[in-house]
Amino acid sequence: MSEVRGIYTIWLREVKRFLREKTRLANAFFQPLLWLFIFGTGMRFSAGSNSFNYQEFIFPGLICQAMLFTAMFMGVSIIWDREFGFLKEILVSPLSRLSIFLGKMLGVSTDVMLQGLIIFPFAFLIGAGFGPIEFFKAIPIMILIAFGLVCLGLGFASFMKSLEGFGLVQTFINMPMFFLSGALFPLTNVPTWLQWVSYFNPLTYGVDALRTVMMGSSWTPLFPIYIDLGVLVVFDIAMILFGTYAFSRTE
Hints:
- The chain is mostly helical.
- 78% of the residues lie in helices and 0% in strands.
- It contains twelve helices and no strands.
- Helix 2 runs antiparallel to helix 3 (54-74) and helix 8 packs antiparallel against helix 11.
- The protein starts with a helix and ends with a helix.
- InterPro entries: ABC2_TM, ABC2_TM_bact-type, ABC_2_transport, Nod_factor_ABC_transporter.
- It is a multi-pass membrane protein.
- This is Daunorubicin ABC transporter permease.
- It is found in: Membrane.
């Protein structure tokens, strides 16, 4: 089996497993509805502005939230594969560990992208003012976000021996990254110390970049778009190296 074919096979397995889990697809569809139409409507009148409503403001943040939670959750696939013996089988195959990791990374990243794309039709329900051009501008940013988060999840899962332990790590990472990203509130309205803490969160730059391309002139970016993209690229490189190293040590 060639390395490329092995990567493709592992990618296809991850995508099929995601699509066959109907409950996860249903959750991917209904959870954003709750955030947009219950939480978003409740906060709309207290946090909105003259140029956009609160639902429009949190929409890019909810895309990042769905991608973050899915990326970290899917890291558990490494632990499941170890428990059921599948990981041992592919580790003794002729495939290199780098190819196995790339196959899983690409497969889980595809799942994460699907999770994010499912949310886009809701934009029409809230009257968000972006069209096909803004949609296609958002895709490369989402890919950058997905790669970094997926490698982060797979990397930590490679070190963990139990589902319970990984669940604790997952919560410890998800909550701070989400709440410090500015997904739910403008970072310009928080204390300075909290702003600086948020600047060390890579998801902050993902949310800011998505808002920049999706909200246009309605949104005043925290950073120029090239800084947002530059930070995401550096984050991706660091996480790919971390994930590859962690997976190379898994047993």
